[in-house]
């Protein structure tokens, strides 16, 4: 049985997030679908044994095995607009158990910009699924993700970490509610972009605000029509964007474009206009701030505004971490079992060889020698001896690796693999 971790490779998580990288810098390192596919393909060609990539509005991260983290950093920089120098200023690198812990905190919403946001676990599932199709997920990473999913489910059901608002899309609806109360006049809302964030935002607007004058525009009109049909909303052509901006009181921008799609040049209205930019990279040019009637809020600001209303969630962080610790302890036990499984197999083989030799020798030495009884008795003894050694490997204070090396030396197990 092969070792769970490739020889000379370590498990790393490398990347950047909202914690140290602002929206502009996150935009430089963001990866679209094509870039992720190209990155994974190159990693496979270079012999990276296991790798998954996520790129969201709040973070871009690579989880995988490498001989050195620079292999992963180079892949990220080659397939994004960021440089190694910029990465070193704002990024983080975790190795082995620290990398595992980071994946837990990300996958359970503990590291989300809005604490308790569970949308990220779905994004992780999709990232691992994409890599698995390329045979780029090994047993270690698959097992680890399953543990993260298990932790996420338990935290969601056993704590109130995810109570109330759970996403930037909800936060946008909350912001509109707070600044445009139901008692006031209805506002015309334009949603530009119908990707995942756009869809979720649309749903939250319908559920939580009284504003029913919502218009959708997407470069691909058919996609907008599917969403509009679900909520009975209006769809306009992309060519009508400037006209609809002039008719709107609120614009929510949630496109996947790599460059700004809204600038002051397309705004032809003097009435107050609120623009919420939920895109990474930014899809609204900062020059709109030059217009006195425009208020621009980016998702980073939106998250800060909303986060103050979620302070109660922090009370459940210790409980969430206890759940993670319990699940991760089982994962570490599984790793250790996988690590010493080849040694235990070799030990049983060595003891069985000694058994066969002794039984063969005893046939000629003892009258009425019962071969079958001796064979059964010896096998039971071998199982008990192996069980004692297995318990030793699991419970010994010294490292499993040192204990394995001692077994190999005492029983000359390395000779079996030569």
How much of the sequence lies in strands comes to 5-15%
Assigned CATH architecture of the largest domain: 2-Layer Sandwich
Helix vs. strand class: alpha/beta
CATH class descriptor name of the largest domain: Alpha Beta
Instruction: Tell me the radius of gyration.
Output: 29 Å
Shape: elongated
User: Helix count, per DSSP?
Assistant: 16
CATH superfamily of the largest domain: Glutamyl-tRNA reductase, N-terminal domain
**Count of beta strands:** 10
Summed up, the domain count is 3
| Low-pLDDT segments, ≥5 res | 1-6
The profile of the biggest β sheet is: 6 strands, parallel
Structure in words:
The chain contains 16 helices and 10 strands. By secondary structure, the protein is of the alpha/beta class. The protein has a 6-stranded parallel sheet, with helices on both faces. A 4-stranded antiparallel sheet has the order 2-3-1-4, with helices on both faces. Strand 6, helix 10 and strand 7 form a beta-alpha-beta unit. The radius of gyration is 29 Å and the shape is elongated.
